[in-house]
C-alpha cells in the first residue's frame, strides 16, 4: 500500500488501494503530474492540447 490517495473513476470513491473496494475497478491517482521548468517536451504537449480543442 502506498501513501497516495487514489480515486475510482466509476463511483468516485477515494481509497489508498489500486483497486476500488466497492466495484473492483482500477483506481487513478488524483495528484497532478510533477512540474519541471526544464521540461523538454512541454512545448509539444501544449501544441497537441491546442489541436485537441
TrEMBL record:
What is the phylogenetic placement of the source species in the record? Answer: Archaea, Methanobacteriati, Methanobacteriota, Stenosarchaea group, Methanomicrobia
**Entry's Gene3D superfamilies?**
H/ACA ribonucleoprotein complex, subunit Nop10 (2.20.28.40)
Recorded hits in SUPFAM superfamilies, A to Z, give:
Nop10-like SnoRNP
Q: Which InterPro entries does the entry link to?
A: H/ACA_rnp_Nop10 (IPR007264), H/ACA_rnp_Nop10_sf (IPR036756), Nop10_arc-typ (IPR023532)
Q: Where is the signal peptide?
A: none
The protein's job, in short, is: Involved in ribosome biogenesis; more specifically in 18S rRNA pseudouridylation and in cleavage of pre-rRNA.
**Family recorded in the similarity comment:** Belongs to the NOP10 family.
Organism annotation: Methanocorpusculum vombati
Q: What is this protein called?
A: Ribosome biogenesis protein Nop10
Keywords from UniProt, A to Z, are:
Ribonucleoprotein, Ribosome biogenesis, rRNA processing
Amino acid at each position: 500500500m502506498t501513501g497516495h490517495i487514489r480515486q475510482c473513476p466509476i463511483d468516485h470513491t477515494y481509497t489508498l488501494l489500486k483497486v476500488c473496494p466497492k466495484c473492483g475497478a482500477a483506481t487513478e491517482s488524483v495528484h497532478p503530474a510533477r512540474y519541471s521548468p526544464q521540461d523538454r517536451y512541454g512545448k509539444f504537449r501544449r501544441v497537441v492540447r491546442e489541436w485537441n480543442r
